[in-house]
Write a structure and sequence with these properties.
The complex is a heterodimer of chains A (about 375) and B (about 150). Chain A folds into three domains: about 10-80, no CATH class; about 95-120 and about 150-170 and about 175-325, no CATH class; about 335-365. Chain A is about 40% helix and about 15% strand. Chain A contains 13 helices and six strands. Chain A has helices at about 10-25, 35-40, 40-50, 55-65, 70-80, 155-160, 190-195, 200-210, 280-295, 310-315, 320-330, 335-355, 360-365, and strands at about 55, 85-95, 100-105, 220-235, 240-255, 270-275. Chain A has a four-stranded antiparallel beta sheet with strand order 3-4-5-6. In chain A, α2 crosses α4 and α7 (about 190-195) runs antiparallel to α9. Chain A is globular. Chain B has about 150 residues and is an alpha+beta fold. Helices cover about 45% and strands about 25% of the residues of chain B. Chain B has helices at about 5-15, 20-25, 85-100, 105-130, and strands at about 35-50, 55-70, 75-80. Chain B has a three-stranded antiparallel beta sheet with strand order 1-2-3. The longest helix of chain B is centred in the last third of the chain and has 29 residues, at about 105-130. The chains are: A alpha+beta (about 375), B alpha+beta (about 150). The interface between A and B is large, with 84 and 54 residues. β1 (about 55) of chain A pairs parallel with β2 of chain B, so a sheet runs across the interface.
Chain lengths: ~375, ~150
């Protein structure tokens, strides 16, 4: 039985008005602008774009402000907004080999064409709180150096010259899109990567960590991690040719994994791939490890029962909006459901008491 | 005209990637025009390739704005630009139309050249900072060298 009830409008209005007041905080403290969030909380903005699955730094910053810094709530706002947009088409696959890199490192080769470029990284900082930042000082300008005009090829191409790593041959087949078709498992690697790219960073981090600790061990090296800007090209139907319509910042990670070979594949290195919107290094790294763990079947490896190998487990639970939607709905009124459960428990207790002590019917009531 | 599309591609890219405020400053007085398609906000699905070189997959969407205009002389211009700035899309479409008219030389010098130079300067400034963080390895003296 479903019973509709009304009421609570006044309480809800008051709750939302109070929410707006609390969001603003102490009026004596200057209000944050959306531009300040975009420019100074950049990595939070990047996370909201990646998990919201929409590249728009201004909107992500607005969502963070509206959500009072609750990033999953901000992702929710972005996901809701993107459903209102007409889809104009798809870009050509971005060329990450031609990325204008801010950062590019490899943990497998010291000397490589294009060099090791650290970029604006937290690595090698001492993780000591910097109280100077509380004093609102200006940062000194970053040093510069002469730019060497040289290509920055993918590290995998270096290994591929000797056939030591599996090849990824170009394929322009339009990929499946989980925002358009219901998810069906088993999924292709392309579909899995789409799901992981918008998956929750914390969830993917834990899964990736679990593979390192032995739950579906794949022994990953960071073949390459690069962060920078790539051009976005879209074919405009009015013109019949592809045009660059913008530029996006992406983080790409390729893990290199030991592989002893199988019935169909010779011993060689295999690859896990991560590509994430914005500067989202931990997420890209996690994605590449989870991608590799999910490929056990394709590579003829054993299924050890590890969570990171379980496609249904990973893909069905990596989306934090689905997760939080289902989780949080249980705090909404379930009065009727609970009433039914209450009746059931009372009846069972009555029956159990009667069975233990026939003739005690009055006591049970 | 084998390269006709190349040049148009080139200027459309410059216009699309321009900071909206700069384009507005460089084109303060847009010529009279009518909309064939009024500025419209939508999304484009960004695609990547598995392993950087392999099969295409969907990475996520990007907000874009598109617009088509017709000048008084009948020339049509199109634009599809990153972001949600309708004025950016309108001005980019207008510049695209003007580049196909006698005004091309003027737009190329007064608008496109500045945008191009500023984009290059911005890119070079970042590249120079990245270059300063490039690691130069050196090998320490080892036991067998002594």
């Amino acid at each position: 039985m479903y019973v509709a009830v009304k009421g609570g409008e006044r309480a809800i209005d008051a709750a939302h008005a109070w929410l707006a007041e609390e969001r603003r905080g102490d009026p004596a403290v200057p209000e944050l602008s959306v531009a300040q969030i975009r420019e100074q909380m950049t990595l939070a903005v990047n996370r909201v774009m990646a998990e919201g699955s929409l590249y728009d730094p201004d909107l992500a910053a607005l969502a963070i402000k509206q959500a009072r810094g609750d990033l999953i709530e901000a992702v929710f706002l972005i996901r809701a907004w993107r459903t209102t947009l007409p889809r104009f088409g798809a870009s050509e696959p971005v060329d990450t080999g031609a990325m204008a890199v801010d950062r590019r490192i490899s943990a497998t080769f010291k000397d490589l064409p294009g060099g090791q470029v650290l970029g604006p990284t937290f690595d090698y900082t001492h993780r000591l709180l910097d109280f100077a930042l509380a004093a609102e000082g200006e940062a000194p300008p970053a040093p510069t150096a002469d730019v060497r005009d040289e290509p920055v090829p993918h590290v995998a191409t270096l290994l591929n010259r000797d056939g030591l790593i599996e090849d990824e041959a170009p394929d322009d087949t339009p990929p499946p899109d989980l925002t358009r078709q219901p998810l069906e498992l088993p999924a292709s690697r392309a579909l899995r990567l789409q799901a992981l790219a918008r998956g929750d960073e914390g969830f993917l981090l834990s899964l990736a960590y679990s593979t390192q600790r032995g739950y579906g061990r794949t022994h990953a090296f960071v073949g390459e991690l690069r962060i920078g800007r790539v051009a976005v090209k879209v074919e405009l139907p009015e013109l019949g040719f592809a045009v660059e319509i913008g530029e996006v910042e992406l983080t790409e990670c390729e893990s290199v994994n030991q592989f002893r070979g199988s019935k169909t594949e010779p011993p060689q290195f295999t690859r896990g791939y991560g590509l994430v919107m914005g500067q989202s290094e931990r997420m890209a790294l996690s994605m590449s490890l989870v991608d590799r763990a999910l490929r056990w079947q394709e590579l003829g490896e054993d299924f050890t029962g590890a969570p990171a190998q379980d496609e249904e487990f990973v893909i069905s639970h990596c989306d934090n909006i689905q997760a939080t939607g289902f989780l949080e709905h249980i705090k909404l009124p379930h009065y009727v459901d609970f009433q039914a459960e209450l009746e059931l428990v009372r009846r069972l207790r009555r029956e159990a008491l009667l069975a233990a002590n026939p003739g005690a019917e009055e006591a049970a009531e | 005209m084998p390269n006709a599309n190349e040049t148009r591609k080139d200027w459309m890219a410059v216009l699309a990637k321009a900071p909206p405020g700069r384009l507005a400053a460089l084109m303060p007085d847009p010529p009279p025009h009518e909309f064939l398609r009024a500025p419209e906000i939508g999304a484009v699905m960004l695609r990547g390739r598995i392993g950087g070189t392999g099969a295409a997959f969907n990475l996520g969407e990007m907000a874009v704005t598109r617009c088509s205009v017709r000048l008084g002389c009948g020339t049509v211009g199109h634009a599809c630009v990153q972001g949600r700035d309708k004025d950016h899309a309108r001005r980019a479409a207008l510049a695209d139309a003007l580049m196909q008219t006698d005004a091309a030389a003027e737009i190329a010098t007064s608008v496109l050249a500045s945008l191009r130079n500023e984009a290059v300067a911005k890119r070079d400034a970042r590249a120079a900072k990245a270059a300063a963080t490039r690691v130069e390895f050196f090998t320490l003296v080892r036991g067998e060298d002594q």
